[in-house]
C-alpha cells in the first residue's frame, strides 16, 4: 500500500531533525503554545479556520516587533513529502518576513496540502504562477552554512523550524 | 600558466582546506545521487531542457522581457560588463541608494560590479557568509559554490579577530557564524537595494529561481525596496515546470545536499510588504509593497557568440553546481585559485573563460585538466567537459609562437598540426614516433635516454621531469612476438583482433602476452596485427588534427577485421575510451559506431566469455589471494571497473578497490616538470589507500599504463595489469 503523503512528510521531517506535530483544529491552540518561545509574532491563519488568539502570538506585528521576536508563526501553502519541504508564500501580510527574520519558524500546514514529489510541486507552481504573478520559497529545514569551516544550523534565517499539521478529527 | 613554484605555494597554503572540503562534497554527491531513483533520467531531462533553451535563446529573451514587464519589472540586456555596470549604476542613482546588499552571484563577479559601484561611492556588501569573508580578506573566490572553500575555520577566526577585535576572541564555527550574521543583519535591514543572481529564470512567468541555504538571498530581496537580478542570458528556461529536474539535481551534484535549505521562486516585484525595522506602529499588512522595483539585467558578454560556437556551446548548459571541481583530482589539490580564470574555476571554467575573457585567460589553467573524464558522469547536464578543454587547448596551441628549439623535435614529431604547439606538447603528442625509435634502438635508447645529460636536456627543452623514470622500451614488440608464434585454437568460441596499443606494444609487452594467453585459454582465436596508435597522446595535448588523422588510420586498419566477424579487444583503458567516446567527435558516425559497438576492454571481454559459458578453469585461479585494484579514471567513466572485479572474484581473488578519482599521472601530466608535484600530491591519496592495514600486503593491480607508472613511483611493491593475474 502506498504511504500517505502526510506519513511520508513526517518521516522526511524526522530525518531533517525538524519537530513535527499533527493536531486538530480543536487542539490547535494548545499545540501551538508548545512550539513557540515568546516574544512570538505571526500571520493570520484565518484561511485554515484556526486562530492564534490566546496563544501569546502577536498577529500582524509591526516591523519593530518582528525584529524583536524569537518565534514566527505562518501558514504555508503546501508541503513536499519526499523532501520534508514547506512552501512559504510571499504574501502582502508578510509570511516571508515572519518566517525569515526570526530564530524559529513554526510552519502551519493543512494536512490535505501535502504533495508527494517535487515534480508534483512544480506542476502546481506552474499553474499558480501563470495564473497571476506569485512567489514562494521551498524551505527545507533551518537555514545553514558551511562557510565558516564546519556545518552550522542557523545562518541568516531561522536556526530552528517546526511544522504543525492540521488534520480533520475522525468522525 | 601557473609554474611549479606557484602551484606548490598554493598547495601549501590552501591545499589542505580545499582538499578536505571538495572531497567531502564529492563523497556527498555519490551518496545523495544514489538515493535518487531516477538520477539518469533527470540528467537526460535537464540536458534536453538546456539544449532546447539555448537553441531558442533569442526568442526566450524576448519572452522574458514580455513577462517581466507585464509583472511590473524591467529587463535590460547588457552587451558586456561595462554596459551592465552602467545600467546598474543608473538604477542605484535613480533610487538614491547609499548601500547595495548582495547575495552570492558569480555573474556579478564576472562583471566586477562591486568595483564599479564602489568607484561611484556606493557601499556594496556581500551577505553570503563565504563571500563576506572574502570581502573582508580582500580575496577572490576559489570555488564557484563555496567561494571561501580555501579558508579553514582557524584562518577565518584569525581574520575576524584581527579585523574586528571582538570583546571575546571568536573561535568556533557557531561563534563565527553568529558574529557575521549580526554584523550583516544591520547592514541588510537598512539597505535600499538588494542584488541577487539567478540560478534559473522562467520565460513563461518571469520567475527567478535562487538556490541557497543561508537565507541571505531571501533577506536581500525582502528587506530592500529594489531588487536587481544579474544573470547570464543562458539562465533562461522555457517554463516553471522545467525547473523540476534542476531543483532535484543541483544541490546533490554540487555539495551533496538532497536539496538546499531554500529554493526561492520569486516573481518580482514580490508582494512582501516593504519594511522599516524601526517602525513600531504600522502592522505589516498595512505596509506597502507597491513601491517595490525589479530590474533584471541579462548579460551577454560573449555568450551569444558561444552559442554559435559548436564546441563551446555546451558550456552554456552549465548550471554552476561545482561537480566538475569537486570530482577533479587536480582541483582537489590546487583549488580554484590555480585551476581557474578571472571568475570561474574547475573543469568547465575553460569553456566560460575562453568564451567570456578569451584564450589567454583559459591558457593560464587549461592544462590542469588531464582529460581523466571523471567530471563527465558527475555533470548533471552531461557536458563533455574534457572535450571543451581539449578544443580550447588546440586553439591555444594554434595561437602559440614557435619555439627556438623547434628543430630539435622536428624529426620526431610528424604531426598534422597547422600551428606550432609548444614543444612539450609536440613531444608527448608524438609519442608513437618516439616509441618506435625507442624499440628499434633498445636497449641503447633506454640507456641513452636515462643518462644525466639526456635527462637534463629533456627537462630544460621539453619539461620532462627528471624525478620520473622514463618508460623502458622492449626490444621486441607485442606484434613481433605474436607474429613469431604458431598457436591455433581449434573450433574457436569467438574470434578477436587484439588492439596493440602503443604502450602494450612497446613498453608493457608482458600484459599484452598475458592477454593473448588468457583469451586463447578461453577458446578465442586471436590476431595482433600492426595497427596505428589511437591518437590518445596527441589528443591529450590538444592536437586534434593529429588525433583525427590517427583515428582515421585506426578505423581503416581495424575495419576489415570487424567486417570479417572479429571483436576488437583493447587492453589500454585510455584507448578503449578513445574508441567509445572521443572517436565520436573524430570520425564519421558509421565508422565511429562500428568501432565503438565492436570493441571491448580486455577484462570486460573475459567477463563476457565467462558469462556466456566459457569455463574459468583454464585461467589461473587462486584460493583467496588478496588483491588491491586501482581502476583507471576513463575506464570508470565508461562503467568498466566492475568487470575486472567480477572476473578476479570469479577466479578466486579477494579484491578491494581504490576510490580515488584519478591516480594523478594521467598520461603525460605527471611527467611534466611544472605538474610533477601536483601529480604526486594526487597520487598520495592513492598511496594512502594502498598502504593501509588492510591493503599494505595485497598484490597491486591496475588497468592503465599511467596508473601502473604512478603506482611504481608511489609504492615499493611490484604492479601488474589484472589480466596478468589470470593468465
Number of strands of chain A: 12
Major β-sheet annotation of chain B: 6 strands, parallel
Query: What is the strand arrangement across the widest sheet of chain B?
Result: 1-10-7-4-2-3
SS element count, helices of chain B? 36
Structural class of chain A: alpha/beta
Number of helices of chain A: 5
Shape of chain B: elongated
Largest interface: A-B, 56 and 75 residues
Percent of residues in helices of chain B: 40-55%
Query: What is the helix fraction of residues of chain A, given as a range?
Result: 25-40%
Low-pLDDT segments, ≥5 res of chain B = none
SSE-based structural type of chain B? alpha/beta
Q: Which series of helices and strands of chain A comes N to C?
A: HEHEEHEEEHEEHEEEE
Distance between the ends of chain A: 23 Å
N-to-C CA distance of chain B: 46 Å
Q: Mean of residue pLDDT of chain A?
A: 94
The total beta strand count of chain B reads 18
The shape of chain A is globular
Describe this entry's structure for a reader.
The complex is a heterodimer of chains A (171) and B (727). With 171 residues, chain A is α/β, with parallel strands linked by helices. Chain A has a six-stranded parallel beta sheet. Chain A has a four-stranded mixed beta sheet with strand order 8-5-6-9. In chain A, strand 10 and strand 11 form a beta hairpin. The model of chain A has no long low-confidence stretch (mean pLDDT 94). Chain B is α/β, with parallel strands linked by helices and 727 residues long. In chain B, 50% of the residues lie in helices and 11% in strands. In chain B, strand 5 and strand 6 form a beta hairpin. The mean pLDDT of chain B is 95. The interface between A and B is large, with 56 and 75 residues. Strand 9 of chain A pairs antiparallel with strand 9 of chain B.
Amino acid at each position: 500500500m502506498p504511504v500517505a503523503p502526510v506519513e511520508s512528510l513526517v518521516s522526511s521531517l524526522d530525518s531533517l531533525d525538524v519537530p513535527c506535530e499533527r493536531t486538530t483544529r480543536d487542539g490547535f491552540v494548545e499545540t501551538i503554545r508548545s512550539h513557540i518561545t515568546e516574544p512570538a509574532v505571526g500571520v493570520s491563519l484565518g484561511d485554515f479556520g484556526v486562530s492564534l488568539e490566546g496563544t501569546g502570538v502577536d498577529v500582524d506585528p509591526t516591523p519593530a516587533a518582528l525584529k524583536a521576536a524569537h518565534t514566527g508563526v505562518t501558514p504555508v501553502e503546501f508541503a513536499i513529502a519526499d523532501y520534508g519541504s514547506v512552501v512559504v508564500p510571499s504574501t502582502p501580510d508578510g509570511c516571508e518576513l515572519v518566517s525569515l527574520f526570526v530564530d524559529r519558524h513554526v510552519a502551519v500546514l493543512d494536512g490535505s496540502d501535502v504533495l508527494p514529489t517535487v515534480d508534483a510541486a512544480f506542476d502546481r507552481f506552474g499553474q499558480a504562477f501563470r495564473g497571476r504573478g506569485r512567489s514562494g520559497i521551498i524551505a527545507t529545514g533551518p537555514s545553514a552554512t558551511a562557510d565558516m569551516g564546519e556545518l552550522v544550523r542557523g545562518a541568516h534565517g531561522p536556526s530552528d523550524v517546526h511544522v504543525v499539521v492540521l488534520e480533520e478529527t475522525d468522525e | 600558466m601557473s609554474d611549479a613554484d606557484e602551484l606548490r605555494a598554493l598547495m601549501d597554503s590552501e591545499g589542505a582546506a580545499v582538499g578536505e572540503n571538495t572531497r567531502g562534497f564529492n563523497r556527498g554527491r555519490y551518496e545523495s545521487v544514489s538515493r535518487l531513483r531516477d538520477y539518469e533520467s533527470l540528467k537526460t531531462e535537464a540536458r534536453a531542457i538546456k539544449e532546447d533553451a539555448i537553441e531558442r535563446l533569442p526568442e526566450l529573451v524576448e519572452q522574458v522581457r514580455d513577462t517581466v514587464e507585464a509583472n511590473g519589472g524591467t529587463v535590460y540586456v547588457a552587451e558586456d560588463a561595462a554596459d551592465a555596470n552602467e545600467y546598474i549604476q543608473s538604477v542605484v542613482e535613480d533610487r538614491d541608494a547609499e548601500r547595495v546588499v548582495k547575495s552570492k552571484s558569480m555573474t556579478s563577479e564576472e562583471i566586477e560590479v562591486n568595483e564599479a559601484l564602489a568607484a561611484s561611492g556606493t557601499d556594496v556588501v556581500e551577505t553570503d557568509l563565504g563571500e563576506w569573508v572574502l570581502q573582508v580578506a580582500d580575496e577572490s573566490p576559489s570555488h564557484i559554490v563555496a567561494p571561501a572553500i580555501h579558508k579553514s575555520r582557524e584562518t577565518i577566526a584569525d581574520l575576524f579577530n584581527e579585523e574586528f577585535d571582538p570583546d571575546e576572541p571568536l573561535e568556533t564555527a557557531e561563534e563565527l557564524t553568529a558574529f557575521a550574521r549580526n554584523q550583516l543583519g544591520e547592514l541588510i535591514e537598512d539597505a535600499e537595494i538588494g542584488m541577487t543572481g539567478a540560478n534559473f529564470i522562467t520565460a513563461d512567468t518571469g520567475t527567478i529561481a535562487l538556490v541557497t541555504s543561508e537565507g541571505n538571498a531571501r533577506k536581500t530581496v525582502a528587506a530592500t525596496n529594489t531588487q536587481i537580478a544579474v544573470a547570464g542570458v543562458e539562465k533562461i528556461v522555457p517554463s516553471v515546470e522545467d525547473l523540476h529536474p534542476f531543483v532535484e539535481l543541483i544541490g546533490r551534484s554540487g555539495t551533496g545536499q538532497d536539496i538546499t535549505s531554500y529554493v526561492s521562486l520569486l516573481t518580482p516585484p514580490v508582494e512582501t510588504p516593504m519594511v522599516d525595522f524601526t517602525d513600531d506602529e504600522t502592522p505589516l499588512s498595512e505596509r506597502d509593497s507597491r513601491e517595490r522595483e525589479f530590474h533584471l539585467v541579462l548579460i551577454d558578454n560573449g555568450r551569444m557568440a558561444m552559442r554559435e560556437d559548436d564546441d563551446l556551446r555546451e558550456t552554456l548548459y552549465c548550471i554552476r553546481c561545482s561537480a566538475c571541481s569537486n570530482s577533479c583530482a587536480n582541483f582537489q589539490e590546487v583549488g580554484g585559485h590555480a585551476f581557474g580564470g578571472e571568475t570561474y574555476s574547475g573543469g568547465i571554467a575553460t569553456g566560460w573563460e575562453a568564451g567570456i575573457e578569451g584564450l589567454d585567460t583559459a591558457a593560464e589553467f587549461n592544462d590542469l585538466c588531464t582529460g581523466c573524464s571523471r567530471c563527465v558522469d558527475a555533470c548533471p547536464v552531461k557536458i563533455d567537459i574534457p572535450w571543451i578543454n581539449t578544443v580550447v587547448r588546440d586553439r591555444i596551441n594554434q595561437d602559440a609562437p614557435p619555439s627556438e628549439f623547434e628543430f630539435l623535435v622536428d624529426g620526431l614529431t610528424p604531426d598534422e598540426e597547422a600551428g606550432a604547439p609548444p614543444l612539450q606538447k609536440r613531444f608527448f603528442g608524438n609519442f608513437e614516433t618516439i616509441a618506435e625509435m625507442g624499440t628499434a634502438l633498445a636497449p641503447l635508447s633506454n640507456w641513452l635516454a636515462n643518462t644525466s645529460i639526456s635527462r637534463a636536456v629533456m627537462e630544460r627543452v621539453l619539461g620532462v621531469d627528471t624525478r620520473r623514470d622514463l618508460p623502458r622500451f622492449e626490444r621486441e614488440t607485442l606484434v613481433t612476438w605474436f607474429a613469431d608464434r604458431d598457436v591455433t585454437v581449434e573450433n574457436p568460441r569467438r574470434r578477436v583482433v587484439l588492439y596493440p596499443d602503443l604502450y602494450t606494444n612497446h613498453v608493457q609487452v608482458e600484459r599484452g602476452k598475458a592477454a593473448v594467453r588468457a583469451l586463447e585459454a578461453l577458446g578465442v582465436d586471436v590476431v595482433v596485427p600492426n595497427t596505428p596508435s589511437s591518437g590518445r597522446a596527441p589528443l591529450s595535448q590538444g592536437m586534434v588534427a593529429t588525433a583525427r588523422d590517427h583515428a582515421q588510420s585506426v578505423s581503416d586498419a581495424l575495419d576489415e577485421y570487424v567486417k570479417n566477424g572479429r571483436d576488437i579487444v583493447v587492453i589500454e583503458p585510455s584507448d578503449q575510451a578513445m574508441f567509445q567516446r572521443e572517436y565520436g567527435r573524430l570520425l564519421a558516425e558509421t565508422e565511429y559506431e562500428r568501432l565503438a559497438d565492436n570493441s571491448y576492454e580486455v577484462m570486460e571481454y573475459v567477463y563476457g566469455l565467462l558469462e556466456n559459458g566459457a569455463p574459468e578453469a583454464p585461467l589461473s585461479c587462486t584460493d583467496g589471494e588478496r588483491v588491491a585494484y586501482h581502476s583507471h579514471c576513463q575506464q570508470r567513466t565508461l562503467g568498466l571497473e566492475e568487470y575486472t572485479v567480477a572476473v578476479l572474484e570469479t577466479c578466486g581473488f579477494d579484491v578491494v578497490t581504490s576510490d580515488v578519482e584519478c591516480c594523478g599521472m594521467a598520461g603525460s601530466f605527471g611527467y611534466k616538470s611544472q605538474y610533477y608535484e601536483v601529480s604526486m600530491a594526487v597520487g598520495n591519496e592513492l598511496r594512502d589507500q594502498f598502504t593501509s592495514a588492510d591493503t599494505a600486503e595485497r598484490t597491486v593491480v591496475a588497468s592503465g599504463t599511467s596508473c601502473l607508472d604512478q603506482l611504481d613511483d608511489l609504492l615499493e611493491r611490484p604492479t601488474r595489469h589484472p589480466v596478468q593475474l589470470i593468465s
